[in-house]
Amino acid sequence: MQFDTSMLIPVLPEIFILTAACVILVVDLFLKEEQRVISYGMTQISLLLAIVVTLMTAPAETRIVFDGSVIRDGMSDLLKIAIYIISAGAFLYSKDYLKDRDLFKGEYYVLGLFAVLGMMVMVSANTFLTVYLGLELLALSLYALVAFDRDSANSSEAAMKYFVLGALASGMLLYGISMIYGATGSIGFQAIGEGLANPDVNKMVLVFGLVFVVIGLAFKFGAVPFHMWVPDVYQGAPTAVVTFLGSTPKIAAFALAMRMLVDGLGGLHADWQYMLVILAILSMGLGNVFAIAQGNIKRMLAYSTISHVGFILVGILAGTTKGYTAAMFYSIVYAVMALGAFGIVILLSRRGFEAENLEDFKGLNERSPWFAAMMLLVMFSMAGVPPTVGFFAKMFILESVVSIDMTWLALVGVFFSIIGAFYYLRIVKLMYFDKPVDASPLEAGIDTRIALSVNGLSMLALGMFPAGLLSLCSAALS
Amino acid sequence: MTFEKFVFYVFAAILVFAATMVITRRNPVHSALFLVLAFFSSAGIWLLAEAEFLAIVLILVYVGAVMVLFLFVVMMLDIDLATLKAGFIKHMPVGVLVALVMAIEMFMVVGPANFGLEKVPAPAAQGAGYNNTEELGSVLYTVYMYPFEIAAVILLVGIIAAIGLTMRKRPETKFQDPSVQVRVKKADRLRVIKMDAED
């Protein structure tokens, strides 16, 4: 490899976030307890600056550097910017929550930034090795974040489950990668694509490897039947962490699927298409049905995640640019919706009280009509009620499978969405038609109020004008 | 049978024996020691495959560091073997069946049919001056520089997570502060009490 400094420009966003995380780690050491807000502020500023750095270094055409380890294309840039913005939102919502519970520490933000870095590495990975390392960086940071509330037995248990199952999934993924390496002799996505075109390639070994790769992927997505960790982790982890864990990593998981299955194993589309069909139908079905039975709002949102993952998989399995665009749109929109929903859950919680049950939403309209309206928008969007953006996200996905003559799959999707609408609308009913159980007013800083309002209204704004984000997504993939 | 083949079979037999002992011994300390033997035999096999650097690293890192730590942990923890072993006999038939099916499947895929010598020819032998440490180093810091740096970041996260999750201030812990000890003055330690002499 011939090294020249211009190779560093495409990875400048990663370098920037890594430097920022290390600087915050050191600065935080010298801060007093009451100055902790400086670490928080620095984290938010780094995420903002990262947007600027990413935009400024955006190359005119796709660039592959470091001997094929890194790819910088339209998709990586758009997804990275979405990751920065949504992570910043998650950090903002979690600030007051952490302060109230004496968890307001620099490590939360440092680990959060490292998780963001892991997602960035995954998003612009171009070999299986880079994908895997990015995934581990993200996962390791998340394990530590889930266990962040050290004195809570629930979060330790959740972290343990997450860690053991995550390690198992990584093992599966690695085993699959080793098979693909055995068959094609390479771990770079372009070289694997060329290897697949070779008629002498050993199909049996390849498909064997593919099965393990898909299993690893399904674990990370939380798709049925590899979803067991999702509800437990969502319930056990501190709400502030779930807000982060439940939103942006879904974008990263989408990128993981795109890089591995489309960039790398695109030649095996006919083989993985039906594997994803099974995962998608099971996820949409089980996710929506099980969510109805949940009395805990975090568990309910966990099952709702599983059903939304099913939809994202439907878009990917279509195997057309239209499908990928729809899946990308859906994953970004889902991350924003999840952020809003957990933001409201955080808002309802306060020192010594966790708003975890559906009853806590009773009569929210009387306590705060504005936030009830925001939650209404988020719930409508998750259910897919027009004119919120959730409707369009679902519609684009369904359109893409109809166009490849899998209308039956679209019908299955619609059927389960209707079942799913029940539990989202139940929350709306609790908020508007029930008497509040406790009438204490909601306390929130001005920043949280503004962010939640923007978050809620964006559901409506994106729904009124979906063309903007959609054209960004399709431009990123072309 | 050439001498090399003989050595391979000896190492392989020891490896399989040691691996079986790891999972069947009642005493976890014995299991850990057998695992050391298993690592050692695999290192021998790697040495036969001319992967000298990896063989030595396996012994240095896994036997020298990881297993010693493991032994300490096993000895420190009071593991209740009875609860661990509960249900072992009950679940064994299912476990054996699953393991057997998996072994057959894996043999079909990674066995000689797909990865035999005629499918994947053995690499050509290297000359006497060949140094595989140098070869590894030269790709590790050039071609694989980016993944190498990411791996370093993962280790950093590991350190932060470990310290963040385990370090806590315990107010009841007693400790010495040498700087305070040095700065101590006579007045801090000695109290002269004036009292009347007793009769």
Automatic annotation (TrEMBL), chain A:
UniProt keywords, alphabetically: Cell membrane, Membrane, NAD, Oxidoreductase, Quinone, Translocase, Transmembrane, Transmembrane helix, Transport, Ubiquinone
Which is one Gene Ontology cellular component term of this protein?
plasma membrane
| This protein's record includes keyword RNA-binding | no
Give any single GO term for biological process: ATP synthesis coupled electron transport
The main place the protein resides is membrane
Residue ranges annotated for the NADH:quinone oxidoreductase/Mrp antiporter transmembrane domain, each copy included: 125-419
Molecular function, one GO term: NADH dehydrogenase (quinone) (non-electrogenic) activity
Provide the E.C. number(s) assigned to this enzyme. Answer: 7.1.1.-
**How does the protein associate with the membrane?**
Multi-pass membrane protein
**Cell location:** Cell membrane; Endomembrane system; Membrane
Catalytic activity reads: a quinone + NADH + 5 H(+)(in) = a quinol + NAD(+) + 4 H(+)(out)
Residue spans crossing the bilayer: 12-31, 38-58, 78-94, 106-123, 129-148, 160-184, 204-229, 241-262, 274-293, 300-321, 327-348, 369-386, 406-425, 457-477
InterPro entries associated with the record: NADH-Q_OxRdtase_suN/2 (IPR010096), ND/Mrp_TM (IPR001750)
Family, similarity comment: Belongs to the complex I subunit 2 family.
Sum up the protein's function in the record's words: NDH-1 shuttles electrons from NADH, via FMN and iron-sulfur (Fe-S) centers, to quinones in the respiratory chain. The immediate electron acceptor for the enzyme in this species is believed to be ubiquinone. Couples the redox reaction to proton translocation (for every two electrons transferred, four hydrogen ions are translocated across the cytoplasmic membrane), and thus conserves the redox energy in a proton gradient.
What subunit structure does UniProt give?
A: NDH-1 is composed of 14 different subunits. Subunits NuoA, H, J, K, L, M, N constitute the membrane sector of the complex.
Q: What protein is this chain from? A: NADH-quinone oxidoreductase subunit N
Q: Which organism is it from?
A: Sedimenticola selenatireducens
The coding gene here is nuoN
Automatic annotation (TrEMBL), chain B:
GO molecular function (one): oxidoreductase activity
Q: Which Gene3D superfamilies does this chain map to?
A: NADH-ubiquinone/plastoquinone oxidoreductase chain 6, subunit NuoJ
Q: Membrane among the record's keywords?
A: yes
Q: What topology does it adopt in the membrane?
A: Multi-pass membrane protein
Positions in coiled-coil regions? none
Q: What are the record keywords, sorted?
A: Cell membrane, Membrane, NAD, Oxidoreductase, Quinone, Transmembrane, Transmembrane helix
Report the catalytic activity: a quinone + NADH + 5 H(+)(in) = a quinol + NAD(+) + 4 H(+)(out)
> Which GO CC terms are listed, alphabetically?
plasma membrane
Question: Subunit composition?
Answer: Composed of 13 different subunits. Subunits NuoA, H, J, K, L, M, N constitute the membrane sector of the complex.
Q: Which family does it belong to?
A: Belongs to the complex I subunit 6 family.
Q: What is this protein called?
A: NADH-quinone oxidoreductase subunit J
Organism ancestry: Bacteria, Pseudomonadati, Pseudomonadota, Gammaproteobacteria, Chromatiales
